């Protein structure tokens, strides 16, 4: 079981939770498990063919999975997965 | 038995190795650390380039902060060679193992035509105004002079730019450019602390200038009353040392990123949403650029601005000041910049989370290939933030 940190802009899709626990032994499995439980997230995180959207970064602990093994990156018990979308606001 | 001054000098000379200014200059070329032990008024008249200034009157307290390495090759000097001889003896007593005194001092150094520089001398008023900076060895009068000589461009006098511009001005950053085409609105005042109730309806650049002028007359405000676009970005950013990004739209962020990478100007970035902020420094090749981190912008519904989603007023205040901290570090050349790291601040949990960022080897803007292509006059195409297509980067090498 790993913990997925949900960014504020997506929390409405998971009932307001800041983080959710998801099963999975790779980053891809965890993301699939996440969008399986919260289908509203699928369109936000994944492209139509199931790839991660380029405007969303996914970190395993503090490392960008793009520079690890992407979706095949192994996830250990207790790891934290951070979803980081770009933010617009400059406080206007 | 009491000792005379002559006795003290003889003892010191027996213990401390001494060299001539000419020999000292050779050591300087080999990287020896010079320590000037004269008083501030003497230092202000000129000193040996690169020397540390630790006045004899504060020597024992000050030297460890300035020169922590007890094995470093040190050359001490004063005006004539006496005070530095006694200081060198003291250093040996403190465990410094490679201490040399320069005979004849700064007077002999100058009379032999060896290189020296005159520092920017702060006025009496400036010495008082910046006294808390001057007390910090990492800033000091040299750092303060550097700040006074620095140029920082703040994009947007909004939630991030307001506190940032205020503190940059207070710190004595000599030139602050502000890019904003908007006017002050009553709804801005919950967080945009550089503006004021009686300036609602005024141009934000004029309002920011009024506040900064009242705070610190040392600062020149350059008002750029226009929207940053691909057509004017090169002109707007030219000549600035660091850019503080307080923009609101992805289009502006990509335009700014591409042009600042091409111009080699670091961008200190932050963005906010409700209770949360993101912060990083984009300064390739030390770390990635904005486009490495976010190659394409999100759809609007995934990234609403503050006017749509709202923001806790202190969040842009905190993030804007963290940006200012990074700007000042970059200007002074101190500390570890956030280049290659991103910090997420969560106001509700009061937590900072740090992520590692990497340069994208295929980045069309900051990769080695992109830099080489730009230098050759054939910049790589980058995706347009507005239409998803590709447009040629319009900024030169």
Report on the structure:
The complex is a heterodimer of chains A (92) and B (397). Chain A contains two helices and five strands. Chain A is globular. The relative contact order of chain A is 0.25. The mean pLDDT of chain A is 92. Helix content of chain B is 37%, strand content 17%. The longest helix of chain B is centred in the C-terminal third of the chain and has 19 residues. The N and C termini of chain B lie far apart (74 Å). The chains are: A alpha+beta (92), B alpha/beta (397). At the A-B interface, strand 3, strand 4 and strand 5 of A face strand 10, strand 11, helix 15, helix 16 and strand 13 of B.
Secondary structure blueprint with pairings:
The complex is a heterodimer of chains A (92) and B (397).
Chain A: E1 2-5, E2 19-22, H1 27-37, H2 42-45, E3 56-60, E4 63-64, E5 80-85
Parallel strand pairs in A: 1-5
Antiparallel strand pairs in A: 1-2, 3-4, 3-5
Chain B: H1 5-15, E1 17-19, H2 21-29, E2 33-36, H3 40-43, E3 52-53, H4 59-66, E4 74-77, H5 83-93, E5 99-102, H6 105-111, H7 124-129, H8 131-134, H9 140-148, E6 151-155, H10 161-171, E7 175-179, H11 204-215, E8 220-224, H12 233-237, E9 242-245, H13 250-263, E10 267-273, E11 276-282, H14 290-293, H15 306-309, H16 314-332, E12 341-346, E13 351-356, H17 368-375, E14 381-383, E15 390-392
Parallel strand pairs in B: 1-5, 2-3, 2-4, 4-5, 6-7, 6-9, 7-8, 9-10
Antiparallel strand pairs in B: 10-11, 11-12, 12-13, 14-15
């Amino acid at each position: 079981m790993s913990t997925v940190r949900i960014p504020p802009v997506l929390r409405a899709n998971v009932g307001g939770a800041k983080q959710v626990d998801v099963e999975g032994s790779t980053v891809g499995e965890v993301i699939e498990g996440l969008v399986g439980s919260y289908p509203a997230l699928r369109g936000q995180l994944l492209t139509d063919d199931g790839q991660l959207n380029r405007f969303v970064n996914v970190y395993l602990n503090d490392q960008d999975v793009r520079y690890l093994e992407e979706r095949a990156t192994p996830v250990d018990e207790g790891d934290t997965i951070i979803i980081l979308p770009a933010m617009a606001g400059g406080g206007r | 038995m009491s000792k005379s001054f002559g006795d003290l000098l003889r003892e010191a000379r027996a213990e401390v190795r001494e060299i001539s200014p000419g020999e000292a200059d050779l050591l300087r070329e080999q990287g020896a650390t010079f320590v000037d032990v004269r008083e501030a008024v003497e230092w202000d008249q000129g000193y040996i380039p690169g020397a540390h200034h630790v006045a004899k009157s504060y020597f024992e307290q000050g030297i460890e902060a300035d020169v922590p390495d007890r094995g470093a090759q040190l050359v001490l000097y004063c005006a004539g060679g006496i005070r530095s001889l006694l200081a060198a003896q003291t250093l040996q007593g403190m465990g410094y193992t490679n201490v040399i005194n320069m005979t004849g001092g700064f007077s002999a150094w100058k009379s032999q035509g060896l290189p020296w520089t005159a520092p920017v001398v702060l006025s009496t008023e400036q010495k008082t105004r910046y006294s808390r900076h001057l007390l910090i060895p990492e800033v000091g009068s040299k750092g303060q002079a550097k700040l006074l000589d620095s140029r920082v461009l703040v994009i947007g006098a909004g939630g991030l730019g307001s506190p940032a511009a205020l503190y940059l001005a207070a710190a004595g950053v000599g030139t602050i450019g502000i890019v904003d085409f908007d006017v002050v609105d009553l709804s801005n005042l919950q967080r945009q602390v550089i503006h004021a109730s009686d300036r609602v309806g005024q141009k934000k650049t004029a309002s920011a200038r009024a506040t900064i002028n009242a705070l610190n007359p040392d600062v020149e405000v350059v008002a750029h009353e226009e929207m940053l676009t691909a057509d004017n970005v090169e002109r707007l950013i030219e000549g600035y040392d660091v850019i503080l990004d307080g923009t609101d739209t992805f289009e502006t962020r990509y335009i700014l990123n591409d042009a600042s990478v091409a111009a080699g100007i670091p961008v200190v970035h932050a963005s906010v949403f409700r209770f949360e902020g993101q912060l990083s420094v984009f300064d390739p090749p030390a770390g990635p650029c904005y486009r490495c981190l976010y190659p394409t912008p999100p759809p609007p519904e995934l990234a609403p601005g503050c006017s749509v989603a709202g923001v806790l007023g202190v969040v842009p205040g905190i993030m804007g000041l963290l940006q200012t901290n990074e700007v000042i570090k970059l200007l002074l050349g101190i500390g570890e910049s956030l280049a290659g790291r991103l910090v997420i601040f969560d106001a509700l949990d009061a937590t900072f989370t740090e992520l590692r960022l990497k340069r994208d080897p295929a980045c069309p803007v900051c990769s080695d290939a992109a830099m080489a292509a730009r230098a050759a006059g054939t910049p790589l195409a980058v995706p347009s933030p507005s239409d998803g297509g590709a447009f040629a980067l319009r900024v030169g090498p």
